[in-house]
Design goal:
36% of the residues lie in helices and 23% in strands. A hairpin with a 2-residue loop joins strand 9 and strand 10. The protein is globular and about 55 Å long.
Length: 294
């Protein structure tokens, strides 16, 4: 009997210390991740900004200047994006990557969506954005659903990729999503689809492999479906042009007093010729600015 009680006591003690150890591990793992993240920030701070090796990348930003020059609130009319694609195509852009989601049809003017789709089809080099969204089902289960571009844009044969961001516990963006699964189907990120357009098709992936392969590019993974972002520097590291300046050609009248037909000069200067043009939001009120190690 004594042996039985001693065994019970020993078992209880082991369970108690296992519970304590488990609680400590649960508490410690996030701290380890936080320390790892801060070490990444320190590495970037120590290294400092570096010149982008690929000067073929430029940014067209929906910035505060665009909101002021166009004298209107966001979202912009579809016709603006139609003109943007036409002008960038006219300017000889190699690739137009739209980090803007066109997932809601224009019910008031559906013909504008068709015109936008036609401009995308004519250019033949536009990458669009979609997203994975999570719907709360019964039992607190989140079901992933894909939110693609609207049907007319899909029918334009444009490629598209997802733009879900990975935020760490402190709100910083240090990793980039390579792909995600919805059901059994794989969806690649916007930049991966752009890279595929510029190189060879995406290779058949081994989810347990330490690298992600696109053509000759071997991308080290941070996790099964993400990579660490090698930031080149803070905002402004890549040449950036205002969205309004690409619209402002001789046939477009800005709604402010800043109408200069500046896009005609961009044509002369070959600003966008053979460039990879990334289009996205940077205006403060659009709330698409993120925290980075810089």
């Amino acid at each position: 009997m004594k042996r039985f009680f001693k065994s019970q006591i020993a078992t209880s003690i082991l369970i108690f210390w296992a519970a304590i150890l488990g609680a400590l591990l649960i508490y410690a793992i996030p701290l380890v991740h936080d320390l790892q993240n801060k070490s990444i920030d320190f590495i970037f701070e120590f290294r400092g900004p570096v010149s982008p090796p690929d000067t073929q990348i430029v940014i067209v930003a929906l910035d505060d200047e665009s909101l002021r020059s166009l004298n209107r609130k966001y979202p912009f009319p579809t016709q603006y994006y139609t003109r943007l694609v036409k002008n960038l195509d006219k300017a000889g852009a190699k690739l137009i990557v739209m980090d803007i989601e066109f997932t809601e049809p224009n019910f008031e003017h559906p013909e504008h969506d068709l015109e936008f789709a036609q401009a995308i089809n004519d250019a033949g080099n536009v990458i669009l954005a979609g997203k994975v969204v999570y719907e709360l089902a019964s039992g607190r289960v989140y079901n992933p659903q894909i939110l693609p571009p609207i049907a007319p844009l899909i029918r334009s044969d444009a490629e598209w990729g997802i733009v879900n961001a990975i935020e760490d516990r402190d709100g910083f963006i240090r990793r980039y999503l390579l792909f995600d699964y919805v059901g059994e189907k794989i969806y690649y990120s916007l930049s991966i689809k752009a890279l595929e357009k510029l190189s060879d098709p995406i290779a058949q992936q081994d989810p347990f492999a330490p690298v992600f392969i696109v053509g000759d590019h071997r991308i080290p993974k941070a996790q099964a479906n993400s990579m660490y972002i090698n930031y080149r520097g803070p905002k402004g590291s890549f040449r950036t042009y205002s969205f309004a300046s690409v619209l402002d050609d001789s046939t477009f009248q800005l709604l402010s007093d800043e109408d200069t037909d500046i896009f005609e000069f961009h044509l002369q200067w070959e600003t966008f010729k053979d460039k990879i043009v990334m289009v996205g939001a940077s205006a403060e009120e659009l709330q698409d600015n993120k925290l980075t190690p810089f």
